[in-house]
Design a protein that fits this description.
The protein has 83 residues and is an all-alpha fold. It has helices spanning 3-17, 24-29, 41-55, 71-80. The protein has a single domain (3-80), classed as Orthogonal Bundle (Non-ribosomal Peptide Synthetase Peptidyl Carrier Protein, Chain A), CATH 1.10.1200.10. InterPro entries: ACP-like_sf, PP-bd_ACP.
Length: 83
């Protein structure tokens, strides 16, 4: 899977997790924080669940979770895990 494909897939998951409040294009473009776009804590939980289910990974939320800030940082974190 290419980096661009992974990021596009994750951006679509952000859009779903936000129940349409955030577009995939906006999620891809955000450079600071998905929270700035309006992704709520419930939205983050939905996103975490979708990523874990869709990619067969367990996201460690006990330590630094800055990898959840942007689509790019989440994609980089997943690539580090072999996705």
């Amino acid at each position: 899977m290419t980096a661009a494909t992974l990021e596009a897939d994750l951006a679509a998951l952000v859009a779903q997790a936000s129940e349409g409040g955030i577009t995939a294009a906006d999620a891809l473009a955000e450079q600071e924080s998905l929270g700035l776009l309006g992704l709520t804590s419930l939205g983050f939980l939905r996103l975490i669940h979708a990523v874990e289910r869709g990619y067969g990974v367990a996201l460690d939320l006990d330590d630094d979770v800055s990898f959840m800030d942007t689509v790019a940082s989440l994609a980089a974190h997943l690539r580090e895990q072999g996705i």
